[in-house]
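User: Quick sanity check before I run a bigger batch. Here is a single chain. Can you write out its predicted 3D structure?
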Amino acid sequence: MDRKDFLKKGLLGTGMFVTSASLANSMKNEIDEIEPLEPIGYNHLPNTDSKIKENSVLHKADSRGKADHGWLLSNHTFSFANYYNPERMHFGVLRVLNDDKVEAGRGFGTHPHDNMEIISIPLEGDLEHKDNMGNTAIIKSGDIQVMSAGTGIMHSEFNKNNDQLVKFLQIWVYPKKRNVTPRYDQITLDTTKSHNAFQQILSPNADDEGVWIHQDAWFHLGTFEKDTEKNYQIRKKGNGVYVFMIKGSAEIGEQILEARDGFGVWNTQELPIKILKDDTEILLMEVPMTM
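Assistant: Done. Predicted structure follows.
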C-alpha cells in the first residue's frame, strides 16, 4: 500500500461515528470523494495574528465546524464527516479533535474503526463503552480512554445518565504502525498532579505515566491559577505541539487564547505559557509533523 492509500485508509477506513449502518451507507459516496492532503505535515494557513507567524496556526473556537444531530452537538477543529475544510485536514498526525456533547441516554451506536489511535477525554458526565473485544467500561471526568483500532474494532459509546449531558473530547491520531492488534485501555488520573503543572496523560511508552499509543506523541493536561508561568519542552525533534484551551485564558507563544481555541506551533524547542485567568485548563498535544 503506497502513502496515498495509507492516508486515504486512515480517513475513510476508520468508520465515521454513525448510529446505524444505513446512515453509514448513505454517507459513503460523499465521504469517498474527500481526498486527504498529502503529505501529512504543514496542512494549515499561516497564523497572521502571532509574532511567530510562519511557525504557528490559530483556530479560534467560533471558526470550528459545527454539527447538530439533536442528540449530539459537536464542534470539529479539523475536517470531519460533513464538515470538509481542505485547509484544516489535520495538524501533523493529529487528525481529529471533536468537542462533543451527548444528550442523556443517547450515544454512538456500534460502528467500526481501523488503523487509528483514538483517545477520549471526558469533561462532564459518564460515558459507557462497549466493544467487540469484550470490554465494557464507564469513563468520567478524570479518566482517559484509548483504543488502538489496528486491524479493526467495533464499539459503541453512550451517555450512561438519564438526567445530564456527557461532554468529552474525541481525538484521533494517525499511528506509526498499521494493522497492529486492536487494544483498549483506560486510566483514572491523579488530578492533584495537574494543579499548576502539566501532567503527562499519554506517551509512546507503555511504562510511562498515562496511557500509550502507537505514535511518538505526548499529551499533557494542566489546571492553573492566574499568573502561573510554564515552559513546555518538546520531547522529540521535529514534533509540533497543538494547544487546546479547555477553559480559561492564557498567553502562549505570544498568542492570547480563550476557551476552546486551538493553537498549533512547530519548528520550536519550547513553548512559553503564561496563565491569564484562574482555573484555566489546557490540553497540550505534541505530535510528529510528518510520517
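The first helix runs from residue 3 to 12.

User: Great, the batch can go ahead then.
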